[in-house]
Amino acid sequence: MKKYNAFSAILPGSEGAAAFRRVLILACMAVLLFSQPFRAEAVTIVDDAAQLLSSEEEETLYTQIESLSALLDLDVMVVTTEDAMNMSSEEYGDHYYLEHCSGDDGVLYLIDMENREIHISTSGIMIYYLTDARIEQCLDDGYEYVSGSRYASGFQAMIRDTVSYVKSGEGADYTRDRDTGEIIWLNDPGKKRITTTEGLLAGLLGLLAGGGTMAGVFARYRMKTGGYQYDYRSNHGLNLYRRSDDFRTRRVTSRRIPKNRDGGGGFGGGGGSTTHSSGGHSFGGGSRKF
């Protein structure tokens, strides 16, 4: 008796070869499509609308934020304004970020001359890296220069702090929604996990592999119309059996196991980040008057 190998259907000359080749071409096209990043190239902006920076200072800041952006593929923006359009510094910064960002992960540094305020807006993974305490430290270092009208140095100090925090690899233990009080405990974003794209690719390739094999089997063994008919009249039969199970008793015991928060209580470790919603997007951040 000749053994059948399902994969023989894909060899040249087999009945399923042409169909399988078409499936294979489509699979390759799908892999190329889904392997492309869904995010546009990261945005780096120095926008000195308030004319607080010299050309040389703008160039230096641009080089600095490009280095920060490259660490995590971040959108990074340095902005000054004399007209906050009747918005607070926080509202203006969040609005500006949403208008210019290419993705979810990023940070914006703002010097708002109308409200006389320094502001930092964080989004996505930067909410994790720039906790409330770290933002306060950035603002402390920036304020030291901005209060003396050394605006470029203020931006540079805040960006240097941010680079240091990102390179440390440590971040927030939790986020707390400012409006609802909801607390969400976080996992380390640096831990390896399956991304949406990887999941889609795995599922697609699994379907294509299984579909290709099935196509080969059907092509090899497909039955013609009007072929074999089973003689159910002479081969039918029915046997009935009786079976019963007596249910005696069942006991289910459950208990709640509390999660271990290192440090024995409170919000220790990397601290937390307070978030708020603006334009349907979640932001972290903080401000300092000067």
Instruction: Give the mean pLDDT.
Output: 77
Low-confidence stretches: 3-11, 34-38, 188-195, 247-269
Shape, principal axes of CA atoms: elongated
| Structural class determined from secondary elements | alpha/beta
Q: For the record, what CATH class of the domain at 44-173 and 268-289 applies? A: Alpha Beta
Instruction: Specify the number of helices.
Output: 8
CATH topology call of the domain at 44-173 and 268-289: Diaminopimelate Epimerase, Chain A, domain 1
What's the gyration radius in Å?
31 Å
Q: What is the strand content?
A: 15-25%
Second-tier CATH architecture of the domain at 44-173 and 268-289: Roll
- The first-to-last residue Cα distance is 90 Å
Helical fraction: 40-55%
Q: How is the largest sheet built, in terms of strand order?
A: 1-2-3-4-8-7-5-6
H-E string: HEHEHEEHHHEEHHEE
Number of strands: 8
For the largest beta-sheet, the strand count, sense and barrel status come to:
8 strands, mixed
Describe the structure.
The structure is a single chain. By secondary structure, the chain is of the alpha/beta class. The chain has a domain of 152 residues: Diaminopimelate Epimerase, Chain A, domain 1. 40% of the residues lie in helices and 17% in strands. A hairpin with a 5-residue loop joins β5 and β6. The N terminus is likely disordered.
Describe how the helices and strands are arranged.
Elements: H1 17-34, E1 44-48, H2 55-72, E2 75-81, H3 89-100, E3 106-112, E4 117-123, H4 125-129, H5 132-146, H6 151-168, E5 174-177, E6 183-185, H7 196-221, H8 232-235, E7 272-278, E8 281-289
Parallel strand pairs: 1-2, 2-3, 5-7
Antiparallel strand pairs: 3-4, 4-8, 5-6, 7-8
